[in-house]
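Exercise 7. Predict the joint structure of the components listed below.
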Amino acid sequence: MKHWRGLVGIVLILLIWQLLVSIENLPPYLLPSPGLVLHTMLTHWQILLTQTWPTALESIAGLLLAVGIGMFSALIFIYFPPARNWLLPSLVISQALPTFAIAPLLVVWLGYGLASKIVTVMIILFFPVTTAFYDGLSRIDEGWLDLAQTMQATRFTALRYIALPAALPALASGLRLAAVGAPLGAVIGEWVGASQGLGYLMLNANARLQIDMMFAALIWLVALALILFFTVDWGMRWVLSKR
Amino acid sequence: MIKSNDAPGIILSNASLRFQHKLLFENLSFELPSHSITCLLGPSGVGKTTLLRMLAGLPLFGRGQDKLQAFPHRRTSLTAPSPPTPPPQAGEGSEDMNLFFINEFCHATITTSDGIPLTDRVTYMGQTDLLLPWLSVLDNVMLGSYLRSQQCDIQTKARALHILESVGLDAEIHHKPTTLSGGMKQRVALARTLMEEKPVVLMDEPFSALDAITRYDMQTLAAEKLAGKTVLLITHDPWEALRLGHQIIVLRGQPAQLSNSIIPPELPPRDITHATLLPLQKLLLNELNMVARNEI
Ligand SMILES: Nc1ncnc2c1ncn2[C@@H]1O[C@H](COP(=O)(O)OP(=O)(O)O)[C@@H](O)[C@H]1O
Ligand SMILES: [Mg+2]
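Solution:
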């Protein structure tokens, strides 16, 4: 096992955290001990679970939307370079806009429900997916294209049998990053206005100085991000082995 | 009756090409006799690959940023607004190729002996094997069928298997290319080339990455498999040329000029230690040495 060092590192940090809280006698509303956080997680698991579903749903829906739109725009850019010249500047600007600034607008336009969060997630994630896929498609070995040309390939078959499989590893790394970012986007969406979700739970806990609950929700959020990451990672491995 | 898959003779005439400050060819003419292997030697940078790409109809000035957008990049058949030199008697089956850029231009006329255009009758084998690492050996060999959206039926597969068997790879058909040795990969590339069943084969230093013994075996195999086709084989190895070429030409200078062709006796693959080849060896090395010492 190569991971034991990482585990030891985590355990050490938890120990130092626990020691700090005990020695300095910090009150739980400033910094709860790891033990208390664990206790909260176990006693309030039902609340945590029910608040995780909306966040998970927003993350997954936003991620899927981002992947679809991102891959589609990369293909458009490859096949219609004028589209890239027209659209790329706007896309870059849209990425430079702080998410926190647009999230409230999305709530105004799309309401308190899931839609505004899904769109927030989508806006954050689709550009990284687009660039990863586009880079993969355009960095193809030209020798393969020469070969394809002498074999009378069409644009479509050259894409299907050469460019697309060749771009998959690049797309996979874009998707892994996107998977980790998805819950973050959902929580930002929930912070600016929601009636459910882990972000909503955190905001409430924070207002009531329930820092232990805050940490518990954070841990669930991290777990959600990790689950998404490993699912996407595993899925892409499978796709790569089947291409 | 003329069949389009009968190997034609090819004449490239009045080829002129400039890359920025470099006039690579000026009114170069060049013949590939039908059913025979022409070996082309010459110092690197003289324009051998460029000449091959002209014949293959591949882009000469790069694909640019939008690689797939520019795809497929067919040989353009345009008539020049005012060609640099009057084209030769452009009969049936001759294709004029004219591409003009600011500092770059290319002009050439390609004529085939059977009057049928060369387009789609060539197959190409490069210096690297160009195998797709995610496909099995068998699928790599059938790549052409996939790219042309042809049905990969039992017959196609049987033919691929037969070709793979004939190059000695029947045990590796389901392997991925990364698990194969350099020599095996190049044999897969040869099998893929043969699978195309094209009458004209253009090869750009196909065996240069192989070790001496593997290369020797590949040469023997290639000579056997390519018999009857019209072949252009670029090589930097004079002994390879003497083993395989029905005709040997040296390209040199700038703009590039062709040497007189050397026609070794007997049929390839020859035994290069054979006494009749010794004077030719000397002649060829002489030509190449002159190239190296710039005495042309
Ligand atoms: N797309 C290009 N743009 C500019 N110069 C090029 C291009 N392709 C080849 N050249 C130049 O043309 C010359 C001949 O190249 P090449 O045909 O590859 O030579 P060889 O195969 O004989 O080694 C080289 O000097 C190379 O730098
Ligand atoms: Mg070359």
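Discussion. Helices of chain B lie at 48-56, 137-141, 143-147, 154-166, 182-195, 212-225, 238-244, 278-292.
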